[in-house]
Design brief:
mainly alpha; 9 helices
Amino acid sequence: MFEIVSAGGLLMLPIIICSIIAMAIVVERFIKLREEKVLPTNLVADVWRMASTKQLTDEKVREIQQGSPLGRILAAGLLSRANDRDSMKASIEEVGGHVAHELERYLNALGTIAAITPLLGLLGTVVGMIKVFTNIMTVGVGNPAQLAGGISQALITTAGGLMVAIPALMFYRYFRGKVDGLVVDMEKESLKLVDVLQKRQAKARMTK
């Protein structure tokens, strides 16, 4: 394996570095984007239960805020629950934008790796072919070993770039779709809480 990599020339070094960074991003995003970590089960129901039993203190809201990305969004609505629906929704959307940005962390880097590694492989191909034609101009076509060295360098860097780019692009698309789905689900859950709290406040005003 080392011989193959070394035969690819210096351009194999940035390709290998890109592969290590891409692997680290993929592992980190798999850990951070687990659904049970982003969208804790029954969190909205628990918040509503605490609100209905008047246990929703400022300390509880802080605990909810620090517990998960969904908790941060719900806490934004809870902190403005005395206001009207539009104000609560605006607070939720503002915090939701920050949460969505955090969920997308490192994805741009992964997409960049997917884009540049084929170009690095192509550059290695060009360098290898330049070496081939330089050898032809210098010694002619009578030394197949020298020609094969340049051609192998071109093929190895191209293959290396594609081997990194293809899975990087696949994971980039996968994580983008997962983040979009999580953001939609968080928006739905937070709007459920807004509607329930607003109905409760309207009912309380009618009974006065």
